[in-house]
């Protein structure tokens, strides 16, 4: 019967092997002897002989060579007589189970009864405990660990302590093969073949000795006449058209989202447990005392209380007398004075009065929270009319002023709106008539013109021009004789007289 070995039991087996001075070679030789003995037992049972002497010989370490010779002969006899039937194999496995577990009591007898009723091999026999895949921790406080096939409780056995297990290992040489099965609450003795398999697994080898992990690869596919791929079918039509079922699913999800059946925001989970009287106590606490509102902070001094302000901010005596005639609410709180240094500043006259009024406000005045209205700044902007309502507005080219050879960088309109001055990167300044587009005058400079501007006073038609690092004031020549005379007087600059230092 196959038994799963826990890691602790595997470590215990390995430690026992190391203590006894054994090795994997001894396991291999011992396993071969055990396999030969099992085959000889089956052959002798068919011939009607007993296998007791052979078991005695295999248990002794000195008769391994004789057992191997007998096993070879028994294997040849078994091959000559043919394979045994399933019933004979089942009966042989049951007999082996009975011989190996003579001291197990009722549990072994029940196992033999189950094996006799079934025609399957020993590995396929159902476990004695029928609780299923249930954790054994559920039965740690019970006197039993489950129920058998007949519905009877499987009582727990008394576990051996360290001393009893040591004495048992001394008395029985095969005790190191026994492992404890927690599921069925019984000790299971491993066969030599299973011990050999465990030894190979502990050494990092394959469980079976016949397995070759480095066997040559056998390519079962024939590539000689393969001129086409394995699947040479044409592409189906569904690969080139959209899926109608996916479209239906998309429509279904869209409708569910619109109806609110599918929500992307997860609802806040309310606490499952809460205080039974928590709401009432909280309401009582709120009504018993007033809510705390912090006191407003005093106003900080500003620039109006400067000790050395400018002269224009210092009031005259007449203004001070007029302050006395005002109402107290409209009267300024502070009259600025000027001091030459900070050492000459006297003490504040109303310091005690202001502190007293501050204390009165904190003690007597009720406090109220000021509600602030959150307004979107965009809503305060005036709504601009639509472009459709602004027609007629210029949408086509009405006039072109042609004459500059470079890009125009600056334009300025005269106060009356009759003339336009333009400056270009070609170093020219032109004056145009707005209505006709005629060029009235042209001035040329060595560098590109950066900016032009008309004089805002209409009685002086003067044009300011910025060229490079220089600024020019030009008389445009517009207007009547009186206007030109005023412009000439304004722009007239006398030459500076150079004094003669030699005289």
TrEMBL record:
Annotated Basic and acidic residues bias: 8-17
GO MF terms held by the record: ribonucleoprotein complex binding
Highest taxon of the lineage: Eukaryota
Residue ranges annotated for the BOP1 N-terminal domain, each copy included: 139-394
Biased composition (Acidic residues): 25-35, 43-57, 65-78, 115-124
Family annotation (PANTHER family): RIBOSOME BIOGENESIS PROTEIN BOP1, RIBOSOME BIOGENESIS PROTEIN BOP1 BLOCK OF PROLIFERATION 1 PROTEIN
Major location category of this protein: nucleus
Annotated localization: Nucleus, Nucleolus
Annotated protein name in UniProt: BOP1 N-terminal domain-containing protein
Keyword Repeat attributed: yes
SMART domains hit by this protein: BOP1NT (SM01035), WD40 (SM00320)
Keyword Repeat: yes
WD repeat copies, ranges: 401-442
Organism: Linum tenue
Gene Ontology cellular component list: PeBoW complex; preribosome, large subunit precursor
Keywords of this entry: Nucleus, Repeat, Ribosome biogenesis, rRNA processing, WD repeat
Region (Disordered), start-end ranges: 1-137
Gene3D superfamilies in the cross-refs: YVTN repeat-like/Quinoprotein amine dehydrogenase
GO biological process, one term: maturation of LSU-rRNA from tricistronic rRNA transcript (SSU-rRNA, 5.8S rRNA, LSU-rRNA)
Record lineage: Eukaryota, Viridiplantae, Streptophyta, Embryophyta, Tracheophyta
């Amino acid at each position: 019967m196959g038994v799963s070995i826990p890691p602790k039991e595997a470590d215990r087996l390995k430690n026992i092997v190391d203590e006894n001075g054994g090795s994997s070679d001894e396991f291999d030789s011992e396993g071969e002897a055990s396999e030969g003995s099992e085959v000889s037992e089956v052959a002798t049972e068919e011939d009607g002989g007993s296998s007791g002497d052979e078991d005695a010989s295999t248990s002794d370490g000195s008769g391994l060579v004789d057992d191997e010779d007998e096993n070879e002969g028994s294997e040849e006899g078994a091959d000559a007589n043919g394979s045994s039937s399933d019933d004979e194999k089942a009966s042989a496995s049951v007999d082996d189970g009975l011989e190996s577990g003579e001291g197990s009591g009722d549990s072994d007898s029940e196992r033999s009864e189950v094996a006799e009723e079934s025609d399957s091999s020993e590995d396929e026999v159902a476990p004695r405990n029928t609780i299923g895949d249930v954790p054994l921790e559920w039965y740690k406080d019970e006197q039993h660990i489950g129920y058998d096939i007949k519905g009877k409780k499987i009582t727990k056995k008394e576990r051996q302590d360290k001393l009893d297990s040591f004495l048992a290992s001394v008395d029985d040489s095969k005790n190191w093969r026994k492992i404890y099965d927690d599921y069925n609450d019984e000790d299971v003795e491993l066969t030599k073949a299973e011990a050999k398999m465990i030894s190979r697994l502990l050494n990092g080898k394959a469980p079976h000795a016949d397995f070759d992990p480095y066997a040559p690869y056998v390519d079962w596919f024939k590539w000689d006449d393969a001129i086409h791929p394995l699947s040479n079918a044409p592409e189906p039509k569904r690969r080139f058209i959209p899926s109608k079922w996916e479209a239906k699913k998309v429509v279904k999800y869209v409708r569910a989202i619109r109806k609110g059946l599918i929500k992307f925001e997860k609802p806040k989970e309310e606490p499952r447990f809460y205080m039974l009287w928590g709401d009432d106590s909280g309401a009582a606490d709120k009504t018993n005392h007033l809510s705390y509102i912090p006191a407003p902070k005093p106003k900080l001094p500003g620039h109006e209380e400067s000790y050395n302000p400018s002269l224009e901010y210092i009031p005259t005596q007449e203004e001070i007398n007029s302050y006395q005639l005002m109402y107290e609410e409209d009267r300024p709180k502070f009259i600025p004075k000027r001091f030459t240094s900070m050492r000459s500043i006297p003490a504040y006259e109303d310091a005690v009065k202001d502190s007293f009024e501050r204390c009165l406000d904190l003690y007597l005045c009720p406090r109220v929270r000021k509600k602030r209205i959150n307004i979107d700044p965009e809503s305060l902007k005036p709504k601009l009319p639509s472009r459709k309502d602004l027609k007629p507005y210029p949408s086509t080219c009405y006039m072109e002023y042609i004459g500059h050879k470079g890009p125009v960088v600056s334009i300025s309109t005269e106060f009356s709106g009759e003339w336009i001055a333009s400056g270009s990167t070609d170093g020219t300044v032109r004056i145009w008539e707005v209505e006709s587009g005629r060029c009235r005058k042209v001035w040329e400079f060595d560098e590109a013109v950066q900016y032009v501007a008309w004089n805002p006073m209409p009685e002086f038609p003067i044009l300011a021009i910025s060229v490079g690092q220089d600024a020019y004031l030009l008389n445009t020549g517009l207007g009547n004789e009186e206007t030109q005379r005023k412009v000439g007087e304004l722009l007239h600059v006398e030459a500076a007289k150079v004094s003669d230092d030699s005289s």
